[in-house]
């Protein structure tokens, strides 16, 4: 026993001696270090991340990034905060009090047009409080392109501009996309077939009733969801979930196809006369669900009424309209204030056609000051589905509009509300519902694959989840620094480990991903996960490390 | 008695005023801005400011408080920020669903608890009694959502006896209030969540009943009844149980008061469109009017039920007078 203690003491002394020696060595090295001029210590960084409950993947991504940044000698803290508090601080805060944040943009159909993910989230005019440019990205050449593309009516020229903006963003790195969510869903293959999949929307897109084919005698398609609605009033609706139902009841002049191209809907076609004049031809023989015909007057009224009463949700889309004229029974002319490229893709494809006779006097009849206050409990549109009933918190029931100009094989749809995804999974398993509107979590995807009556579908998303930098602050005001950090995000691990493979890879400044085939620039090169490269970039940019390994800003 | 009730009602109003004030300021102390939850961040700034003005959130806290109180006196809880509908409407829809579920659970729990408790006291020390106590305590301490998930898995997904979620089958047509809650379809949906909830509540009446029964069974009048040669069942239920009911009634009245909050997790697991979930969401969304309304109603309900229990007590026990 004594022998052991002697040995241990000896070993301890040896280690102590060696450490002392090596620290001597560092001391001598420090001398040479002190000759190099150090700048300030890189300030401590706080990453405001999603809570693990709200978005586990983003929470993990933030922690992985923090671990890499610490290795670079930066003091980093990860602080999970609740979503509303995050939005409040990052988007609305007057003082822009944050360093790094994680959040995402969902890939709704109207965002297939590149304007939202280019102009709206990155143009310098949107960098103020309440604007969508939360990173405070300001870049003259980018601004010029972003403004020009939305006024370029020639689609090829516009595409070229969008491609250039993507190169600038990848080079400037105002944010790093951590991953691209994937829509994995399932449907009952015993009851339905030919389920269409739409980029960014998955199964429950506006095309679902157009193409889906019933196999059983009961032709009602039941869709499970966890998102409750507030209203079925098109002048009041302010969430994507409400529009997913409303666009089935109300028709639109144009619908964006499964591939993302504008296709005629209530319009039989359109003619771009010049940069600020567009003629739209109203399809003949259409009727509203109450039997009244859909006329050019109704179309004009729909736009005028919504412009006058200013529904916030579509503000950006209707703002460019100067006036709407009825040219003849089937032609409506739109005069624009300025050329607006997303006009057909967004404005015509989003604004619902509402019956004039129903809305015209609604304020006097109801004694309300705004049509947004009208409950609209029996919505009348001209879309593919007619309204049956809505039991709040339970379900919305729709029937097929048999007079619709497109043949629809199902006889109705039911939007069924569940408290949580677990309930939806049980519903699918028990055949209470046929499909779902939300993306599935990996555990349910694997479970669904083992269930014979379920087909699992995968659709890419045009939305993205990202790690945003506050460019108004040191050290993120430095482009090289951001570029270095772009090398520290382990995109593959995020997708493979945290999403079990059900997602797309992120990348520096990746705002328009390859799911949006037409607008995605495939030739942009982006930094790969390579922490040693980050160190090289920092060193080349004049960053130094002090004796304690802390990263210091370039001197001078 | 009348003056006692009047005094109690006055006290209730004072407590309600204090509760309302606390609730008003507590919600406004939470970090975050209600408009962030109401408005999509991609909506322009002007639209957001317009909303802030519309809801009076640009006014000083004191002005907001005065408006809140004067509306409250008129029993007007205002309009929900999130749903843009009157709070009374929203609570009305959901309150009925929650109360029906809670009452069904209560009937199961108290019906079974009272008879079971009496029986357990009678069979004190037997193997069956200790098993029953253990089971009641297991369900009391097991998380409801877990029991719920297990029940859904076995009785709904595996055996297919009951529906797995909601109040009605998809697409079920309902033409009036009666059909809404008095149809076979509704009852089928009610059974499983009500049983799970009652398993949680069961321990309280069961054990209270058992304990008071044990006391009562030692009383002289039971001895007397035995001496008269009455049947055991008659002694147990007609003589002993009636005297042991008092504390159970109190517990029951208080239970009704707290039932309005529902069982949030239970409603969540069974996708029951009740108030519980709504209350949690309204606090999360910073929907002040809805959150305030539901908490005030909850507080009022607990107070009213306390009063009812006190009055009932005087009625059931002649020794108590006010």
From TrEMBL, chain B:
Presence of the UniProt keyword Ubl conjugation in the record: no
GO BP terms, alphabetized: transmembrane transport
Record lineage: Bacteria, Bacillati, Bacillota, Bacilli, Bacillales
Pfam families: BPD_transp_1 (PF00528), BPD_transp_1_N (PF19300)
Xref: PANTHER family: DIPEPTIDE TRANSPORT SYSTEM PERMEASE PROTEIN DPPB-RELATED
Main location (coarse class): membrane
Location in the cell: Cell membrane
Gene3D superfamilies assigned to the protein according to its UniProt record, in alphabetical order: MetI-like (1.10.3720.10)
Name of this chain's protein: ABC transporter permease
Organism: Anaerobacillus alkaliphilus
Family from the record: Belongs to the binding-protein-dependent transport system permease family.
Lineage top rank: taxon: Bacteria
Record has Nucleotide-binding as a keyword: no
GO cellular component, one term: plasma membrane
Keywords, alphabetical: Cell membrane, Membrane, Transmembrane, Transmembrane helix, Transport
Membrane topology of this protein: Multi-pass membrane protein
Record PROSITE patterns: ABC_TM1
Transmembrane segments: 12-30, 95-120, 132-155, 190-208, 244-266, 295-316
Residue ranges of domain ABC transmembrane type-1 in the record: 95-309
